[in-house]
Amino acid sequence: MPRAKGPRSTRDRMVDSAAVLLREYGTAATTIDAVLAHSSAPRGSVYHHFPGGRRELLAAAVTRAGGTLADRLHDYVDTADSPSAVLRRFASLWRSRLVATDYRSGCPLLAVAVDHPADEPELADLVRTIIGRWTDELRGGLVDQGVPAARAATLAALVLASVEGAVVLCRVEGDATPLDAVVAELEPLLESAARQTLP
Amino acid sequence: MPRAKGPRSTRDRMVDSAAVLLREYGTAATTIDAVLAHSSAPRGSVYHHFPGGRRELLAAAVTRAGGTLADRLHDYVDTADSPSAVLRRFASLWRSRLVATDYRSGCPLLAVAVDHPADEPELADLVRTIIGRWTDELRGGLVDQGVPAARAATLAALVLASVEGAVVLCRVEGDATPLDAVVAELEPLLESAARQTLP
Which residues of A touch B178 (CB under 8 A)? Predict the structure, then answer.
């Protein structure tokens, strides 16, 4: 849903900055100081907007970035005209962001998942819930396109795992080849899964 | 090559501890203090064994963990009897480690790649080189099993991306389902790629 135009609030800018920092530098680098510097927000706004401090700010960034992606996936599923259409648009979203940032920007949820020790269970739960939404959208989209339900579940896991993994490999290599390879291999696999009947 | 038995050196223990911390907690948590605590090494050993400090210790951990995995992949390729045999053993290695650590342990190179800003180019180069070795082993193994060279390159990227991504998803979910889904979907894909003739 498009948001009303207008200057973004200080809170919004801080949340967006936290997401950018998570994408490019990881969780540890996403400190209150780094977010204030990136968003040009006044220091006093931290405990006004985020009384829970850094933990609340990280949770807000993960919720917003993860929710935005879930909404986009929902939109891709709604308008897909083939089993591989959602994959193509999903991969294309990541590819554009990689290219636009010279291969610096990755997934903020993966950054939290990799960095985040088990002693922050609420943030871990949040990441699990959001990644569950992404998987559900991908699986539902495949079912809508005629893929049998059990197969749609394994394929949804494969699509999410391979795109997430490829985004990291693209950052490592400074090149989109791994993501392009994933799309090239998975497109025909998804198409053939929709053509097969149940065993 | 099996190493000679005997008590591990202080340096060895520190490198292994750094790799364990990278796997479970990420790059930022892998500090000199955390490595000393985990390895029970005396503080004086840091600058004796790692005159370059934390950066040198991280590089040693990435080199050892990455080299060990490259050697294993080489071994899997050497003894593979089908195109999907390397994938099965590669995934099984990750799966065993996930299960043994209650889904806490991931890939130390991915942890560095996600967390590591571009202002540490030497560590980034090291990660790129080691991941290049893994990809080369996977690709070579597929070629050995009859997959055409161009296809082997895209499939090697898909295997590495999807296994790396699935390991993160397994940690998020506390469950091996994503990795099992990747194996279930990629096994027949790799087998069929070896049966196809060149276009």
Answer: 157, 160-161
